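fwd from M.: "can u put these together and see what the complex looks like"

so here's what she sent:
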Amino acid sequence: MKVTTTVNGAKQAHDVEPRTLLVQYLREACQLTGTKIGCDTSSCGACTVLYEGESVKSCTMLAAQADGGTITTIEGLAASDGTLHPVQEAFHEHHGLQCGYCTAGMVLAAVGFLQENPTPSEHDVREGLEGNLCRCTGYHNIVKAVLAASEAMQ
Amino acid sequence: MIPAAFDYVLAGSADEAIALVAEHGDDAKLLAGGMSLLPLMKLRLATPSVLIDVGRLHDLSYVRDGGDHVAIGALTRHRDIETNELLAKECGVLRAVAAQVGDNQVRHRGTIGGSVAHGDPASDLPAALVALDATFVARGASGERTIAASDFFVGFLETALGGDELLTEIRVPKAGANGFNYQKFNRRAQDWAIVGAVAATVGGAKRVALVNMGSTPIRATAVEAALASGASFADAAGHAAEGTEPPTDLNASVEYREHLARVLVRRALEGS
Ligand SMILES: Cc1cc2nc3c(=O)[nH]c(=O)nc-3n(C[C@H](O)[C@H](O)[C@H](O)COP(=O)(O)OP(=O)(O)OC[C@H]3O[C@@H](n4cnc5c(N)ncnc54)[C@H](O)[C@@H]3O)c2cc1C
Ligand code: FES
Ligand code: FES
């Protein structure tokens, strides 16, 4: 079936099997490999992207379900002149990553979360990112980065 | 992990979805948010040959004042329940419970109807709906019927919904903005409850229901009876495990779950 979407502002149209997961569609059909597959069982959040502006786990959504929709992946966050998104900038400043495997999902989950709760407490951030696992950082710097980003975005 | 191959059909209306289910019978599955079904399909524990996507039936996503009740469309997402203003006023307990389901990503996709139709005793919303004595509206080829919460959940992952029926609406009493509490005990973020206890106040009386204390979500009838005869919250909560048949698994033994039920019911009552 033909699945047509707008990914990071650009039209994408690809013929895929109905069982194609959104993450495969993004990585293989759209060739946007910034979105990672971690657990592949809906648990880790590494595959998080924004669908219609809201965070979703792209390993647990069919490409077919996104047909006609708008998606943002990590590749679409920075401005065209390379200026990082405030959340990306804050992850960089506050060492919110080590190996980087969870980072694309963390950043997208944080961007979606800050849209819903622009002035979160530290507790809110921890709850808001509960769907994302990081095996390296111990989370503290990720939480710091998200709090800093929320201030920067005020 | 990739699901087994299937044909995908996007339903344009509830009637079309019902006709498609009637046409394809047991080979077909309805897809709402996919938060329960897709993981099962990826593990190939479910292998429908036709997937009927009802996820875009936006006319089944609503929260409305129904006079003596609040009517919630089956396709209403957890996120939309968690943030709904009418529910804040008329049935705050549902908002609080919806906010405890999984994580943000899950709540952006998962629907109350999917949670109910899936019939998992470890799910949060079904227990709240049992406590509230909700009414479920199902529509099939032969028309519409209503099912009481007490008749709806019949076994593990088994409900009173016919294979050819679409759950369309859930009706809850106006239980008000306060007087409730949900205690969800789990060990990992975003996880299902090892045990959960929901307390709500309907028409001045306390209602209590339990998550994961049997093959279905259950009312803690012994607790409610003790409260009705004047027992304190602490004494009434002592009856929380009566009549339950909790599972034993990696997370907890039967005895531990019984203990949790008593403790969590006490906390839920005290917080309600
Ligand atoms: C990581 C993760 C964590 C989770 N944690 C929790 C948790 O803590 N607590 C909790 O309660 N749940 C949890 N869930 C499950 C979540 O609540 C699901 O959203 C919900 O159980 C199913 O809703 P859905 O809309 O996604 O349904 P789907 O997965 O699309 O469907 C589930 C089943 O219901 C049927 N169905 C769906 N809609 C209808 C309808 N209108 N009429 C008839 N049949 C229908 C489908 O055919 C299918 O059999 C979690 C899920 C994930 C992936
Ligand atoms: S890869 Fe999707 S949640 Fe882990
Ligand atoms: S930085 Fe390595 S998993 Fe998060």
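replying to her w this: The longest helix of chain B spans residues 254-271.
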